[in-house]
Input
Amino acid sequence: MLLSLFYSVEFWSWFRMTVCVLFIFVVMLGVYVEYTHTDSCSTPLTVSHDSLLVEYGEPVNLTCSIPTKPSSEYKLGWEAQINPVETENETSVTWRSPGLTEWEVNGREMFCFLSELNKEQCKKRVHLSLYRHPDSVKISSESSVWSEGQMMKLKCEIKNVGPLQNLTVQWTRVDQNKNRTVTEMSYGSFSSSGEERKSVDVTATLNVLASRDEDGVQYQCAALLKLEQLHQPQVGTSEPLNITVHYKPTITQPSNDTISVIKGDELVLNCSAHGNPSPQYYWGSPGKIITHSSILIISSVQSENQGQYNCTAYNDAGSDSVMVNVVVDYKLIIITVCAVLGVGLLVTGFSFWLHERYRRTHSVTIS
Output
């Protein structure tokens, strides 16, 4: 019967519930003991700061005091990783560091304690945090000039900043229209040398695709320490870095088209392109170059000027070309000749009519 009870579902449900209740009881008992141990002392402890954020190398003074001397023997002091101190006959004791540089204080709580004869020790916690502004923040590119289409790396080097676990590297991009884009990299996304609670040298990289939109863009990187008591998290910023991207020209005018020109008129073909470095130009017709200029001028178009003309814009990054087909238009000449002939015929006919009328009139009068 006991064996069947041992294997029953009800038994194991009851067992799990009992273990759970016991666990909660133990946890609550520990919290209660800790609370009465640290905060419900018969002689209250007062500290000058419950928590304190200290800049690397700055002096620190933390005072712990009691209102009156206990009637029995006692010790009042500071329990700390560095510079522990205590007194047996004063109502206050000060923990001092003339210039705090020991990173061991980070992540370790300090205690002001009061130990009385035949009584439990009373403690008061103080959370002390150390941080450090970087010695320098520098941004650099693997190349001073980028080529369109390449994947480029920007590097941000931060010297001696801490604690690493609270560090964020911030990238700021400002384009030609002054629009800002901000990207942040938190701890773990960049390489470092040293422990997470200490000051370290950090190198963060940002991959950027070199495009013509990046030409003239400005980048900066900054070190941010996100600590609750630090009102201004930005602790160091690099100088701005201006980006130059070389890209081949793109012709903006003229377009591939056919242009009709009246024989004898002036023809002006203007070619312009956008590229970096600034493009150079030449105009040509099949088999020859006409001019090393962006403008082609023919002062009086003749029939032999009819045909295809190519503008080429080029720089170190590449080239672009456009073709213009020029057609000499004779319609206006034909119309003009016809008009002149027509006017001539009208004048001749009118003159003949006047002559005939004059002749007939004079013939009648003589008769």
Q: What stands out?
A: The longest strand covers residues 318-329.
